[in-house]
Fold these 2 entries.
Entry 1:
Amino acid sequence: MQTPICEELGIEFPIFAFTHCRDVVVAVSKAGGFGVLGAVGYSPEQLEIELEWIDEHIGDHPYGVDIVIPNKYEGMDEDMSADDLAKMLQNMVPPEHLEFARNLLLDHGVPIDSDDEDNTLKLLGWTEATATPQVEVALRHPKMTLIANALGTPPKDMIDHLHAEGRKVAALCGSPGQARKHADADVDIIIAQGGEGGGHCGEVGSIVLWPQVVKEVAPRPVLAAGGIGSGQQIAAALALGCQGAWSGSQWLMVEEAENTPVQQAAYADASSRDTVRSRSFTGKPCRMLRNDWTDAWADEETPDPLGMPLQYMVSGMAVAATHRWPDETVDVAFNPVGQVVGQLEKVEKTSAVIERWVTEYLDVTSYLDELEGRTA
Ligand SMILES: Cc1cc2nc3c(=O)[nH]c(=O)nc-3n(C[C@H](O)[C@H](O)[C@H](O)COP(=O)(O)O)c2cc1C
């Protein structure tokens, strides 16, 4: 399963795992893949603690950090500190959105206390002002060899800075046009995410998108994202010209993940038809488990979701409540996951997933060789 990117990054398998859990980052990298920590929910101080822990436990293996600087968001043209930006944006959140969200939670029997309300009107790491300090923290850690960016091309000066520090830059895209912008800005690795993927995604499915992006940016390496949960799916990605697989949903269903048993049971029960692309949590289309929260915000009679990052300043109270009361909030929880959820049936050890994927990949490639032998 070795592709040129393995040598470039010093890894055994071209398997990249996006996760919010430091234990999963470590387990993936130690098993021969490449773990990437999603930083969007961490303050720079919390991120420093996570990365120190990863450094202590990961041995000599490399890992990455994922940030979010969208190409479009409310307040993006303002040149101000994260605190000032947060204050400006707080004043832009209509009170009726907050009231609608609060009532939705109360109607579902979710206790709302002041702690949760505190989590409203908070600016997460999805602006340049909040992501830049995260990058500076990440750069203090030499085993952190890759910064990936979601939802847009990272600013050119940030890319140049990361290159000068000897790190690689990756960026996600959902169309060949976005991939071209990444390549023109000298992003090293392009991640093509099909519409079936968990989290923010476009509309075009992986099997159509991947080869289009490969063709657009060749010879730059492309990682295939969206719908990977087996070695057969990795073989398909490599057959379509990608140099590796980038996945997210699978890592919610591993023993090392912090996801609660209730959440994992919801994933195990879900079919591939149970997800929806919804703007109801973040303001941009994001694939997640469909539930009463996503349905309520899609109703014509209810407020329209706001843009990013304003909508999270509203939905933050639901996310906080989900963490505190996982059992009570299952119908209104934020559960980003892709359509591949339909094939995630049980919780496995991270190293067992990597082993399974490699075995499945080898089996299917031998099968293809056999087919080739028949016609020879
Ligand atoms: C729970 C979850 C949260 C995610 N959050 C982010 C994020 O903050 N930044 C990012 O670049 N991608 C994020 N993604 C997308 C993943 O990086 C990855 O591209 C996607 O999961 C691939 O599709 P799959 O879910 O079918 O494996 C998230 C995915 C999931 C499942």
Entry 2:
Amino acid sequence: MNNVQLRQVGKVYAGGVEAVRAISIDIPDGKFCVLVGPSGCGKSTLLRMVAGLETISSGEIVIGDRRVNDLDPSERDIAMVFQNYALYPHMSVYDNMAYGLRNRRTPKAEIEERVQEAARILEIGHLLDRKPRALSGGQRQRVAMGRAIVRKPRVFLFDEPLSNLDAKLRIQMRVEIKKLQRALGITSIYVTHDQLEAMTLADILVVMNKGKVEQMGPPLTLYERPATTFVAGFIGAPPMNLVPLPEGGLPGLKLAKVPGSGRLTLGIRPEHFELTAPGTGPHALDIDVTVSAIEAVGSETFLYCAVGGNGPEIIVRVAGKSEIEAGATLRAVAEAKNLHFFDDETGVRIAD
Ligand SMILES: Nc1ncnc2c1ncn2[C@@H]1O[C@H](COP(=O)(O)OP(=O)(O)OP(=O)(O)O)[C@@H](O)[C@H]1O
Ligand SMILES: [Mg+2]
């Protein structure tokens, strides 16, 4: 079993920077775990601790049934794919892929077999004699993947492997990585700050903030029931609308029911609004809005709206094209099941 367990893992760098704070994650054998969060939240540090490239300040990392804290990277049976691919420029694609196996004194025939097999899977068989400088970005990325695959590791580690590629290639490689990981069934940990990449790749999505886990679970669970305003604002594009409700209410906004008594932030996703004519209702949520800007992207349209005419801005998503024009006054309504409430001070979700 190649499950990965992080138990209360922490990292304090020399100089006192607390990059990772008591993180515990359980990744079952063969699952794809994605770490996502803003720059500097500790994603790479955590991954590098699993790889053995960074010492562990506290806690335990277990791969399979082995505690790996004190093992060298080479003894951990992991393969890592980096953002910059780290290919050897003077070696051919074949030699780049074979390098790690030769170091381990793998028999020549087996190296040949594994490199050819990986090249076939990645469709780079025709590139084996080339040097990395004669490859496109996407091809280099494949070679870096190939180098990881030939090792047949227990665990794949990826640190933003697609961020050097253009948008279209990113999406293509994202799908390929997912298929490949499924087919090979190798436990994987993948770091990104792209929430869409995180949502689409993950079996287990871990949202990190300031060295800690904000929330983890299946991607759609995080989408549907974010535990904090941080997660609500990070997952989804455009993100969830978060409207702080002042004491005494917000002009133009009416809620049928408000949970608890403290100061609240109301959360609602752009796709959960419906637009009606002013004066209709009442619904669980009624907001009188003035449309200030419109973004049409073909498949959908985003309306930027001011609550009550000049209050906070919310984004309303309309499927397909929209006839609505800037300056229009409308009523945006929503059902109770699509409303999220958070404690205004702590940002924590209020039980519902
Ligand atoms: N070698 C180091 N010495 C001291 N502090 C470090 C070191 N490496 C990283 N840090 C700090 O630790 C924190 C986490 O860094 P890390 O590289 O893990 O972030 P990240 O989530 O991967 O960010 P990014 O998305 O920008 O790659 C940051 O505050 C960073 O400045
Ligand atoms: Mg990083």
